[in-house]
Design brief:
It is a single chain. By secondary structure, the chain is an all-alpha fold. The chain has a domain of 50 residues. The protein has four helices and no strands. Helix 2 runs antiparallel to helix 3 and helix 2 crosses helix 4.
């Protein structure tokens, strides 16, 4: 059962890149204009679709959660550094 959930090295690398792209997108400031919001939303959808092509459906939310967790950690670290 575990062998089915293991990703190949190439897929692991691709998933890592998608997660990094998600983190970068999450760390961008919220856009103010509607066109920018639409573009950001489309970018999020694109990243989710890329992730869905790489991993099983039940793992997609797991990797999206990892991206959100990394983004939150970076935000906390930046806030901690700016307050010092």
């Amino acid at each position: 059962m575990e062998s089915r959930t293991k990703l190949s090295f190439e897929k692991q690398k691709a998933v890592s890149l998608v997660v990094d792209d998600m983190v970068n997108l999450l760390l961008q400031p919220a856009p103010s204009e509607s066109q920018e919001r639409i573009q950001r939303h489309e970018a999020k959808i694109d990243l989710r679709n890329r992730l869905a092509q790489l991993v099983p459906k039940y793992k997609k939310a797991h990797y999206m959660g990892i991206a959100m967790q990394k983004a939150n950690e970076i935000r906390r670290e930046r806030a901690r550094n700016s307050s010092n």
